[in-house]
Amino acid sequence: MTTTPLLVVWAPRVLGLAFAVFTTLFAFDGFQKGKPFGAALAEFMMQLLIPGVLVAIVVLSWRRAWLGGVAFVLLAALYAVSSWSRLDWVLVISGPLLAVGLLFLWSWLYQRHTITSLS
C-alpha cells in the first residue's frame, strides 16, 4: 500500500480521535477556584460526554467509514446551527468536525472504489 491510500484511510480516524482529545480539554473548565469538589467533578464528567460520543463514533466508523462521515457532518451542522451567533466557535468546533466527516466520506469512497476495481 502506498502513502496516499494509507493517508486516506488513517487520517479521519486519527484526526477524529485527536479532536476528541481537544474537546476533552474543555471539560477541565469544571474545576474552578471556590467550586466544591463534588460539583466540579459532576460538571467535569458531564463535559466528558461529548468527547466520549466522538470516540464512540470513531470506533463505530472504523470499518464503516460512511457512518463516521455522516455522523461528523451532522454534528458539524448541528453545532453550527446551535451556535450561529458565535462565528468564532462555529469555525473552531464545526470546522474540524466537518473536515473529519468529509475525510471519512473520502475514505469510504476510496475503499469502495478500490474494492470495486479489484473485482
How large is the radius of gyration? 17 Å
pLDDT < 50 stretches = none
Dominant shape:
elongated
Helix content: over 70%
Number of β-strand runs: 0
Walkthrough of the structure:
- With 119 residues, the chain is mostly helical.
- It has helices at 3-24, 37-47, 49-60, 65-82, 87-118.
- It has one domain.
- It contains 5 helices and no strands.
- Helix 1 packs antiparallel against helix 3 and helix 4 runs antiparallel to helix 5 (87-118).
- The longest helix is centred in the last third of the chain and has 32 residues, at 87-118.
- The two termini are 18 Å apart.
What's this model, at a glance?
The chain is mainly alpha-helical and 119 residues long. It has five helices and no strands.
Topology:
Blueprint: H1 3-24, H2 37-47, H3 49-60, H4 65-82, H5 87-118
Helix pairs in contact: 1-3, 1-5, 3-4, 4-5
What labels describe this entry?
0% strand, mainly alpha, 5 helices, 80% helix
